[in-house]
Amino acid sequence: MTKPHSPDAIWSLPTKHLGQTSHVFESLHSTNSLALELADDPSCHGLAILARQQTAGRGQYGRTWQAPPDSSVLLSLLLFAPPQLRRPVLLTSWAAVAVCETILATVNLQAKIKWPNDVLIHGKKVCGILIEQRTTGHADFPLATVVGIGLNVSQTAGMFADAGLPDAVSLSIAAGRALAFNDIAEQLIHQLDRYYATLLDGDRQTLESLWKWRLGLLGKYVTVEGTQHAHRGRLVDATLDGIDLDVAGTLVRLAPETIRHIHEA
Ligand code: BT5
């Protein structure tokens, strides 16, 4: 196992399950990479890793996550979730809802979730989520999950233009005021902990209904791009068990795991 770097600061938060301890780094390759390196140690359950800068921040499928130093919340949470909470689809929706609630609590804006892992404000991407899992050598904790979140806080429109990201936005652009990184990061950890607690209590519905509402597509005509086929129809219902489409009068249920994108037709 690679030896962990030593953090530049350690935060303690009065949370229930996750993020009681946060290791804050001035610079890391990737918060997800460090969290994955720590994933053989179940005593790290709930550890939050934050970086002011990443030199190799990543998105899905080898894509890059770009964030100038001190501009963003770059967070990874390491968890050893019980079996019923290990589905990436569930974990992504949990993180996305926690981000949306953080945005509401800090800048009073209603964000939307773009399937599967983006959070948007006024149609622009403010946050991306990257869930990574790996097996461990432990019989009791066989699977480690890392929930990586990049939330844009203080970038300007000019910074996004220079980075070639015209469809990105930061919280300070959306709110029209400067924001403190620490406040947003703390709020995000609190919200992640809050909804994780509901899931641990066996309540999936609270999260699911917030997620469904934030998808904002119920009743609309959508195109669902699956791993095999694309479907076009009216979105009748969206739960973590299935996406129900009315396709020319026939109800079609699609498993969330088979869906790459959903967009308004
Ligand atoms: C994501 O991937 O959206 C997941 C990003 C997760 C980043 C966090 S930061 C903390 C943790 N540590 C890591 O190393 N990663 C996680 P994906 O859906 O593949 O989207 C990537 C695409 O989003 C890029 O190809 C760009 O088009 C765009 N993008 C890159 N940086 C962006 C930014 N700051 N804001 C908005 N869009 C961005």
Molecular structure report:
This protein is of the alpha+beta class and 265 residues long. The chain has two domains: 9-213, BirA Bifunctional Protein, domain 2, CATH 3.30.930; 217-264, SH3 type barrels, CATH 2.30.30. 26% of the residues lie in helices and 31% in strands. It has six helices and 13 strands. The strands form two sheets. An eight-stranded mixed sheet has the order 1-2-3-4-8-7-6-5, sandwiched between helices. A five-stranded antiparallel sheet has the order 12-11-10-9-13, with no helix packed on it. Strand 5 and strand 6 (118-121) form a beta hairpin. Helix 2 (88-107) crosses helix 5 (181-200) and helix 2 (88-107) packs across helix 6 (205-215). It starts with 8 loop residues before the first strand and ends with a strand. The mean pLDDT is 96. Biotinyl-5-AMP is lined by residues 30-32, 54, 57-60, 63, 65-67, 74-76, 117-118, 125, 128-130, 148-150, 152, 165, 168. The site of biotinyl-5-AMP has 27 residues, from helix 1, strand 4, strand 7 and strand 8.
Q: What fraction, in percent, of the residue positions are helical?
A: 25-40%
List the bound ligands. Answer: biotinyl-5-AMP
Largest pleated sheet? 8 strands, mixed
**Form type:** globular
Series of secondary-structure elements, N-terminal to C-terminal: EEHEEHEEEEHHHHEEEEE
* Strand line-up of the largest beta sheet: 1-2-3-4-8-7-6-5
User: Residue ranges: pLDDT <50 for 5 or more in a row?
Assistant: none
- State mean pLDDT (0 to 100 scale): 96
Number of strands: 13
Distance between the termini: 48 Å
Radius of gyration: 18 Å
Label the CATH architecture of the largest domain: 2-Layer Sandwich
Number of domains: 2
CATH C-level class of the largest domain is Alpha Beta
What is the chains' assembly state? single chain
SS-derived structural category: alpha+beta
Annotated CATH homologous superfamily of the largest domain: Bira Bifunctional Protein, Domain 2
